[in-house]
Design goal:
Nucleotidyltransferase, domain 5, 38% helix, single chain, alpha/beta, 248 residues, 5-stranded mixed beta sheet, 7-stranded mixed beta sheet, globular, 2 domains
């Protein structure tokens, strides 16, 4: 089965084609163009340059978050539209799972970090046995200090950090965790469409964990900044209106 993998959850845009035991093709870009500009051309290019047509696809796998609110919406909307148009299965894969899966060959803890702004990170902690990866926390949007408290209390294991917030907090991580902190190299710290496709292939083939294109929703973990500001503005307007009504 040929699977299209899509990731637009961060500044990186990555698409790939994969089937059992083979990555057929992959494009990964990180530049100033928005995902709305580059996603569909990349999908068309990877399908055409691998000598396939859209009709050859057997399923679609897309990262569903957490990450960039706009990026996630673009990727999920594109995946849902293609799934509906082609009549093929669709699955959503958490962004943090894709990042962690790159290190399933080692042992210890894996901690992807995505910049959630407002002093917070999107993260989850995983343990790798060298054969499989197990997520041992919930997906979360938390201040880094709170996450560090959990990691300090964890068994004395090496911790691999990766993700787009890794460099931003590298000094603090190293200062706090000393030799336990390990940092992924540049080519292993971002999401790749190939891994999205591979993880999706396993779920689609199981037939038990597929998502319906009508029901697949983004995983945001918290409200967007625009929603928070709108709510604050509404409260301010309501308060002003109430004050006017109570004036003598």
């Amino acid at each position: 089965m040929l699977i299209l993998g899509i990731d637009t959850s961060t500044m990186v845009c990555s698409v790939a084609l994969a089937r059992e035991n083979q990555i057929v093709g992959e494009y990964t870009l990180q530049n100033k163009k928005t995902h709305s500009q580059r996603l569909m051309p990349l999908i068309s290019a990877v399908i055409e340059n691998c000598d396939f047509t859209p009709g050859d696809l057997g399923g679609i796998s897309v990262t569903c978050g957490p990450g960039s609110f706009t990026g996630i919406r673009i990727g999920v909307a594109a995946a849902r539209a293609l799934s509906q148009a082609l009549g093929i299965p669709l699955v959503g894969i958490p962004t943090l799972d894709v990042l962690a899966f790159q290190f399933n060959y080692g042992e210890g803890l894996i901690c992807p970090l995505l910049d959630a702004r407002r002093g917070e990170v999107y993260s989850a902690v995983y343990r790798s046995s060298g054969e499989q990866i197990e997520r041992i926390t919930n997906y979360m949007a938390v201040p880094l200090r709170e996450l560090l408290e959990f990691l300090i209390a964890a068994p004395e294991e090496k911790i691999i950090f990766l993700g787009d917030a890794m460099d931003k907090y590298r000094d603090l991580l190293q200062e706090t965790l000393k030799a336990r902190a390990c940092f992924a190299p540049p080519f292993l710290r971002v999401n790749r469409g190939a891994l999205v496709a591979y993880l999706g292939l396993n779920r689609i083939c199981s037939e038990k964990h597929r998502d319906n294109y009508l029901h697949l929703k983004p995983m945001y973990l918290r409200r967007s900044e625009a929603e928070v500001k709108w709510e604050e503005r509404q409260k301010g307007d309501d308060g002003a209106a109430a004050a006017e009504r109570t004036e003598p």
